[in-house]
Amino acid sequence: xxxxxxxxxxxxxxxxxxxxxxxxxxxxxxxxxxxxxxxxxxxxxxxxxxxxxxxxxxxxxxxxxxxxxxxxxxxxxxxxxxxxxxxxxxxxxxxxxxxxxxxxxxxxxxxxxxxxxxxxxxxxxxxxxxxxxxxxxxxxxxxxxxxxxxxxxxxxxxxxxxxxxxxxxxxxxxxxxxxxxxxxxxxxxxxxxxxxxxxxxxxxxxxxxxxxxxxxxxxxxxxxxxxxxxxxxxxxxxxxxxxxxxxxxxxxxxxxxxxxxxxxxxxxxxxxxxxxxxxxxxxxxxxxxxxxxxxxxxxxxxxxxxxxxxxxxxxxxxxxxxxxxxxxxxxxxxxxxxxxxxxxxxxxxxxxxxxxxxxxxxxxxxxxxxxxxxxxxxxxxxxxxxxxxxxxxxxxxxxxxxxxxxxxxxxxxxxxxxxxxxxxxxxxxxxxxxxxxxxxxxxxxxxxxxxxxxxxxxxxxxxxxxxxxxxxxxxxxxxxxxxxxxxxxxxxxxxxxxxxxxxxxxxxxxxxxxxxxxxxxxxxxxxxxxxxxxxxxxxxxxxxxxxxxxxxxxxxxxxxxxxxxxxxxxxxxxxxxxxxxxxxxxxxxxxxxxxxxxxxxxxxxxxxxxxxxxxxxxxxxxxxxxxxxxxxxxxxxxxxxxxxxxxxxxxxxxxxxxxxxxxxxxxxxxxxxxxxxxxxxxxxxxxxxxxxxxxxxxxxxxxxxxxxxxxxxxxxxxxxxxxxxxxxxxxxxxxxxxxxxxxxxxxxxxx
Length: 751
Known about the structure:
By secondary structure, the protein is an alpha+beta fold. It contains 14 helices and 38 strands.
């Protein structure tokens, strides 16, 4: 062992002298004491059981449910046994089989037919949620139908299916339910049995159950998907089109005939990550948090488009598996850290090619598009959508995030002129009062006017990020100028947009009394809250909580009626971690993302959802249930709970600063440009004992922070350090060790 001159103790908030610590060089054994097998799960392979990616590219359903004349539906689960046969007779219920893959998958479905009788038409539709794979009719009676009649004329014949029940409900009347035996889409008539008991007036409402097969995909947005239709003539394999994300598939024999199948599966075409592909991982004593981490990672994998797929040569990170299947800058702010933290350099090409599309579509005035490939229609390449100035700024921050996590200096240096142009574009929205006015839509798609608190904070963040980047690879003078502008914005926000009555920031100068989640979350994270007011802001934000997550603000919602945005809830958990409220951050995680990882939830996909309404569900079939901007728990559990963050590009300097809360232990690995950082810690608040081990790469430096109390005794690599000064805080205190790369074991006990 050796004592390093670079190694020194610093006590946070306390003046004291502590003896230098001892370090080991990488590869040396720990000196003494704590063994990793003392705590279940540490440095084991137990994390691998949480990985959600399929083990093979040939994916089969885990449940099957037949309707109509279907034999041996369970044979499709194992692809052996008696053939599964679906038979539809004229005037009878169309035979169908609903396949559940158990979680989100993406790719091309295939059917292996062994026998075909007659001239059946097969339709295959997919959906992320079971509730959207059939669409009931919702129409009215358009002409009086007399009692005793069996045929009724409707305003629309959409979503009718033979064998469905149909219910007629007149205003103030008793519902009349019948069975559909036939319908004519052109004449908009439906034939029912038995006959009607009495007259039906024009305008009588009509509904059906369970409805006709339907797809939840938006083909105009994604450029792919929609129903697959087959007209087989004999045995053989049928292959459907590409479907980006679904859990359920519904196969229907929609015209008279019969088919027998030996297999139905999916050729998986998202990024199929097995445990061997994970360069980073996370594990803790909390099973729910573990499942969140891997669900976030799987969400990103479902968002990844492989090179060559859909006639696009490059790899890309799309916002959603099913929709929009476009690059979106706001989503990249969550996706890039999550992807690089979990898959490391395996994800880097996807990030770079996605960022390349931003530069390729940058406007002459410097603006990046919010989505460079949104307007797809029939072309998967799409065309740029200049959505908002905020999203333009997010694009620049996405480049900086890529550099921070990878240290790819050549790439960021080449991009720097484009980032400077974008920064100049954003600066055009800054007023003489050093506040941003833009009438922007931002992430929840509703324009906000006036001096909007969040927009000014967002621009502050961009300026600070650019200053960091300029000092790393650019101009120190430009960095100083960016810092000066940012500091002026911060002063203006604090002076004009703080609302003492709220004890928090208002939405804007025109709506100062509207409490908003996002602005206050960012204010906590980036130090805008006036000193001593942090607890009040945390309390104010908690008034926005529901059992399903935090709402955006009183009366606020997006145009589809969703009030809970996981993108914004991720801002709040980050703000709470930054303010030292680990308990609150984890509580909100459980409310927002806990239901998403509950396999009993009907919307479960194994991935994270785009948004939620006030009852915890979604308001439309096209809601994305594998959406990248919702994946913030993964990177926050690594960076805040486990505590590993990059200080300089590529983790050449790093920080390990756990925030345990009530979690008993955590361990994990983080890939870096210099090698893997591995760390683990255990926490026992009752005894005051805290242990941390860390193995960090050579040619790096960092800080390791551990919590301490008034009478803490610290050992480093088996050697006792001087007792902490008696003036150390008994709560919230910590000690920071500055060290070169190496292997460390730190134990904190109480006298």
